[in-house]
Design goal:
heterodimer; A: alpha/beta; BirA Bifunctional Protein, domain 2; Rossmann fold; 2 domains; three-stranded antiparallel beta sheet; 16 helices; elongated; B: alpha/beta; D-Maltodextrin-Binding Protein, domain 2; six-stranded mixed beta sheet; five-stranded mixed beta sheet; 11 strands; 29% strand
Chain lengths: 394, 220
């Protein structure tokens, strides 16, 4: 690669945002920031690079191979943050450890994962999210889900659905069916991989009673409205499983109060990551976007890894995916446009600048000519710069 | 691009030996489209009344169409799906297209143990699955990615062995190759996009159940 070739390229998994895209991204982020602020979630900013050991607490262990890593001067391994929940947990356990609970924090950040670039997700991508720490009540979970929904709506996406699950239900049912640790691990792995064929094979090989195998096969397809919970209850006598279902009922009733229940369906096959989540989990899907738009759940164990045991719940939203979903639904970027172009003839630049400043004070988007020109030249320039109106001072 | 109506179902079918079998299974559960032929000049074939679109794709592309949601569901061999590593719902084993992935070497100079092939060259269409297998056996290999006629590799001195799928073993015999390791069994699978499976749950789950019933009926 010669110098010029190198100078024109950008690394794999990164992208440039041209003005229209950057403007759209800014608009989306502003709407998100306003929604977070309205619900009292204070924004925090954490370093882009952290110690690898910190980031691999919680869900990070599985993602460790996909982190961008480098060394500091003392040869300690650093990594670019792969998500924001872990850095915020570190904050909550260190500099914010004396802050009173519950703690409501939010972020809008770039994060990095070295993996195959997908639709709406490069190796560098943008996430917005919240963490609500210090409450294990259904009210905290419902608040987080309702905020996720209101945020997506505020960012301008109309058509999407939130699928709500509960990992404790699955865990309790598997325990009740008498699976040992190894059996549970195999079943959970097949469910995380969405491999229903593999799941059936495992269920058969475990030599469980026929009804148990059938219940296991039923788990990933427990999908539906509130009536689904009644069905899920009949599959189990486990108290923990019943508690998980009543947790979902409580959350749903609150979501109804928030006026967002019509966006929610139950899907007990939503798991995300068994090792990390400890209660309700959810994912938002939009038509035409094959990947989840947002996801989250309750993670009560992460903070104790940092030495401050504390229940927590939250979500993250993919900003690029949200923008892509909007585009697919015909609500994409609007063109960058200016209200006024101010041109001027020889000797009139002072007046032109005064005029431009007046118009800006009125809230208009204004471009000023950079040299004197004729009216015809100014007309052509106004058009080229996408200005709706020309003010010419001749 | 504004996306299709949510009422529609887009199905990706692979060209090749799975095409006809897949089409007849879809027909048996009442999903068909006029002009759905493997050599169709049209790439997208639509049935307006049933709100179904078929995409006829190259085999290796089917998991990609489905992972990205360009198709809601698709039919694909487990071998190709596993090699692609793509994150899709694997809903149903369709039972046809049975084959297995294996390692074969020239019969004439077969070495005694599998480990005697460590650090040799292996020609394959499935480098990821081959690597997973050999790594699991504690072996490091040199992988040569090929796109067809894998069995030619050892004959022309390109590699010491091959990793490929086998149905009957005829091709192996004709080329004086002998299977020395079984890697995995495969057959056709019904797969679904993660989002589509949730947003169009009733339709896709219903279809999978109908296919399951149809396959059970055929077995009797």
């Amino acid at each position: 690669m010669n110098n010029q070739e190198a100078a024109l390229k950008i690394p794999y998994g990164t992208r440039d945002y041209l003005p229209a895209e950057a403007a759209d991204k800014r608009r989306v982020e502003s709407a998100i920031a306003a929604a977070f602020a309205a619900w009292g979630y204070d924004e925090v900013v954490t370093p882009t690079i952290e110690y690898l050991d910190n980031l691999t607490m919680g869900s990070g262990a599985a993602l460790e191979p996909h982190m961008f890593k480098l060394f500091d001067k003392d040869n300690r391994t650093l990594a670019l943050r792969h998500e924001m929940t872990t850095p915020i947990a570190r904050l909550a356990a260190s500099r914010l450890k004396d802050a009173s609970l519950p703690l409501r924090l939010s972020y809008i950040s770039d994060v990095y994962r070295y993996e195959q670039a997908q639709a709406g997700r490069q190796c560098e991508f943008f996430q917005a999210g919240v963490e609500l720490m210090g409450s294990d009540n259904a009210a905290a979970d419902a608040e987080v889900i309702a905020l996720a929904i209101r945020t997506i709506v505020a960012a301008g996406l109309d058509d999407f659905t939130v699928c709500l699950g509960q990992v404790n239900y699955i865990r309790a049912v598997l325990r009740e069916l008498g699976l040992d640790d190894e059996g549970r691990r195999l079943v959970e792995k097949a469910m995380e991989k969405h491999d229903l064929v593999g799941l059936e094979k495992i269920a058969r090989e475990l030599e469980l009673p026929e009804t148990a195998a059938e219940i296991i096969m039923e788990l990933p397809v427990l999908h539906g409205g509130p009536e689904l919970l009644a069905k899920a209850e009949t599959l189990t006598g486990s108290e923990d499983a019943q508690a998980a279902i009543s947790n979902l009922k409580n959350i749903y009733a609150l979501l109804d109060d928030y006026g967002v229940a019509d966006r929610v369906v139950f899907d007990l096959g939503v798991i995300r990551d068994f090792g990390y989540y400890t209660g309700m989990v959810f994912e938002a899907y939009a038509p035409g976007l094959g990947f989840p738009l947002a996801g989250g759940g309750r993670y009560d164990n992460l903070l104790s890894d940092f030495g401050r045991p504390c229940p927590a719940t939250g979500f993250a939203l993919g900003i690029d995916r949200l923008m892509l979903a909007k585009e697919r639904q015909g609500q994409g970027a609007v063109r960058v446009a200016r209200d006024v172009y101010v041109g001027y003839g020889t000797g009139n630049s002072s007046e032109a600048i005064r005029k431009a400043m007046e118009l800006r004070a009125e809230g208009k988007t204004v471009l000023t000519g950079l040299s004197s020109e004729t009216r015809a030249e100014a007309e052509a320039e106004a058009k080229a710069q996408l200005a709706a109106e020309l003010v010419y001072i001749g | 691009m504004v996306i299709r109506d949510n009422d529609w179902l887009t199905i990706a079918l692979p060209k090749g030996k799975l095409f006809g079998l897949s089409r007849s299974l879809f027909e048996a559960v009442g999903i068909e489209a006029e002009g759905l032929e493997e050599d169709s000049r049209k790439l997208v074939i639509t049935n307006e009344e049933k709100k179904v679109k078929f995409i006829i794709a190259k085999t290796a592309d089917v998991p990609t169409y489905v992972e990205y949601g360009a198709a809601d569901i698709g039919v694909i061999g487990k071998d190709v799906l596993e090699e692609s590593g793509q994150d899709v719902y694997e809903l149903l084993d369709l039972g046809f297209g049975r084959c297995h992935l294996m390692m074969a070497v020239p019969a004439a100079d077969r070495r005694e143990n599998l480990h005697d092939y460590a650090h040799t060259r292996v020609a394959t269409k499935f480098p990821h699955l081959a690597e997973k297998f050999f790594t699991g056996c504690g072996m490091q290999m040199e992988y040569i990615k090929m796109n067809g006629s894998i069995e030619l590799g050892p004959i022309v001195g390109l590699s010491e062995s091959i990793v490929d799928i086998v149905e009957t073993g005829t091709t192996l015999r004709e080329n004086n190759l002998v299977e020395i390791a079984h890697i995995m069994d495969a057959s056709a699978r019904l797969i679904a996009n993660r989002g589509s499976f949730r947003l169009k749950f009733d339709r896709i789950h219903g279809l999978a159940e109908a296919m399951k019933a149809e396959l059970a009926k055929r077995q009797k």
